[in-house]
Fold:
Amino acid sequence: MLEKIYFYYTNDLHSDFEHWSRVAGYLKGAKANHNTKNESCWLLDIGDHVDRVHPIAEAFMGQANIRLMNDVGYDLATIGNNEGITLAHEDLFHLYDKANFQVVCANFHNVQGKEPEWLNTTVTIQSINGVKIGIIALTAPFNAFYELLGWYISPPYNTLARYIKELEESTDVIVFMSHLGINEDQEIARRFPQLDVIIGGHTHHLLRQGEIVNNAVITAAGKHCAFVGEVILTWDHSAQKLIKKEAYTTDITHLEKDQQTEETLHELFVEATTQLDQSVIEMKHPLDVQWFEHTEVMQRLTNTLKEWTNAEFAMLNAGLLLDHLPAGKVTYGDIHRICPHPINPCVVELSGDELVEVIRASFTKELMELTLKGFGFRGEVIGRMIYSGLTVETEFLSDGNEYVSKVTCNGEPLDPNKNYLVATADMFTFGRLLPEIARSKTKKYFLPEFLRDLLADTLRKSFST
Structure:
């Protein structure tokens, strides 16, 4: 007898609910169809469902996301870095308390005491006809952040090696839910032939028909749930083995919306708006925001960052603020709207030479006009860099490009060999936006505060009537 086993999955929604009601309708329909046919079917999420960029996620600290997943009927989920490092310890500890699905993450640990009751290292599920399926999941080890929040992520390869032998002995099939990224997924497939399926996320890769590496089929469905993934396994009960593994992703953006989900989203948005409608200050004058110009609010915010982190200098890009603020009542919702990024303050150590190179790079048209989506940045462009504690003099070339002619502190040039503590947005410590910052061997992150928390303090101190 041949038995088909079905998995449907989502990954990296990032609280982008544009297509969520379509996702809900598609998944509920698929599950109902398989239940009618008496076929085994599970719904999975691979992490980063929560992202505090959205007011619903911000107001409910992720709890509304769990309600939405319950409504769809998810069976299993794992933790992404956006759940893991953007929520305070207590909020994450209780995030899944009301989940009607099992949460699996074998390398996630609480360093402050007992583990959350919802946390499973592995899970075993069973098909209608008795095929035992072992589920293991891992999340990306951003311990520089996690440890500041009272969590620890153990090394992925060591964790897999620890649990995979046990699963191999007790189950027929092993499914790995990976919030590690495509490169890690491929390497894990090469190292661990025991894995049959790797369902991935984190790096927002889209594999339309899956990819076979060693013994595993690897799959992932991009980001924001424009696609939903499906894995179909065929088990031969006579031969007692898998004889076929298939993986597909389906574009759901053209499908009809599930009206019940639409109503729930509207209800949650109204409630979130009410919760965020808490007055922060009253402003007598409107606040001007410009991405490519020096503004008072960006200068004040950069000054606050310098003082708050006790750094010698500070730098922030003007693109962090997305919109103007009118005169009158300013709520936390307004602050979230103009500064929605899950970005934390950070202090790095740079030599005088390195800092000057960073400053020069920041004034290039290429960086200022860079369209960025990622590293926590949820805006449009990087914009002009604003400095505190430094005087940066620039001139314009005949071609219209601006260049840095002089950098001083209290009228004196920077010592090229001296190390300075520079406060900035943590997004510059990732990737290659500003290589000197990314390569700094000394990085101190501040959690759970976001830059918008410093913005609220700045507005209270400098702009309140």
About this structure: The mean pLDDT is 96. The radius of gyration is 24 Å.
